[in-house]
Write a sequence for this structure.
């Protein structure tokens, strides 16, 4: 099978699905966050592939912005997790249920 | 040759992504995330976006995964207890799996994308710079400002609030 746009989009789809199931099934907040990053990366693969096969540069420039935003997002998110751990002494999602009742 | 490299990189990416999800230890998960990102960088190189591959490795592998490892070791959590899943989680997973199957089906069988011949335009550093400083000048400024805001936010978040504790 020759590698074309479909193959790249399929890889991107599978990567997104893996990240999605990670977010759904894992209980550790840090691992959930890593799986969120996987989903973000999957979308960048799709953007770069579409950009390459349409002979434009816009998708690649968008990936630049996505990477910048992702770096900022990780910094803020991890700071929130650390603050949460200081207050509650746990980062397992099933024990973080203060807003539930 | 390009086909073989594509299969290799996609196998590395997807395999280590699956191991991120499966692994019980958060440190190992971060390491497999790193490996997965290396695979994605390889895919970027195959897509003629070598610069993006470098940026991905620098920003993600260099900064983000290092930050993840730092936080994992700082918090020192015990490996998660394997409680059985709730019924809601199982239902949501089933729906997600069905959606994934539908996506793959409609993607492969129903409407295959037209694969136009990839030609010309290998993006060079000059092309990127031209785009970033003409068409996307305002977004670049906004993103820079947002990075500043994120930095201030992290400082505020990670500061201990002494006054509230004293009273």
């Amino acid at each position: 099978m020759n590698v074309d746009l479909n193959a790249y989009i399929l890889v991107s789809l599978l990567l997104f699905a893996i990240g999605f199931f990670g977010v759904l099934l894992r209980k550790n907040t840090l691992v959930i966050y890593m799986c969120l990053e996987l989903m973000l990366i999957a979308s960048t693969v799709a953007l770069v592939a579409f950009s390459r096969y349409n002979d434009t540069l816009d998708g690649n420039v968008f990936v630049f912005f996505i990477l910048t935003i992702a770096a900022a997002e990780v910094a803020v998110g991890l700071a929130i997790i650390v603050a949460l751990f200081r207050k509650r002494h746990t980062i397992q999602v099933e024990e973080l249920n203060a807003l539930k009742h | 040759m390009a086909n073989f490299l594509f299969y290799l990189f996609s196998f590395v990416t997807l395999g280590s992504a699956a191991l991120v999800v499966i692994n019980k230890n958060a440190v190992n998960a971060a390491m497999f995330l790193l490996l997965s990102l290396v695979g994605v960088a390889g895919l970027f190189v195959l897509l003629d976006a070598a610069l993006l591959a470098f940026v991905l490795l620098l920003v993600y592998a260099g900064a983000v995964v290092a930050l993840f490892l730092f936080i994992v070791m700082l918090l020192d959590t015990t490996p998660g207890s394997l409680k059985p899943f709730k019924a809601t989680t199982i239902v949501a997973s089933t729906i997600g799996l069905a959606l994934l199957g539908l996506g793959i089906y409609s993607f492969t069988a129903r409407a295959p994308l037209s694969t136009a011949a990839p030609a010309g335009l290998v993006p060079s550093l000059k092309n990127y710079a031209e785009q970033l400083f003409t068409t996307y000048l305002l977004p670049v400024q906004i993103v820079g400002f947002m990075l500043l805001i994120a930095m201030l936010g992290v400082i505020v978040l990670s500061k201990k609030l002494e006054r509230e504790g004293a009273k």
Q: What stands out?
A: Residues 58-88 of chain A form the longest helix (31 residues). Chain A has a mean pLDDT of 87.
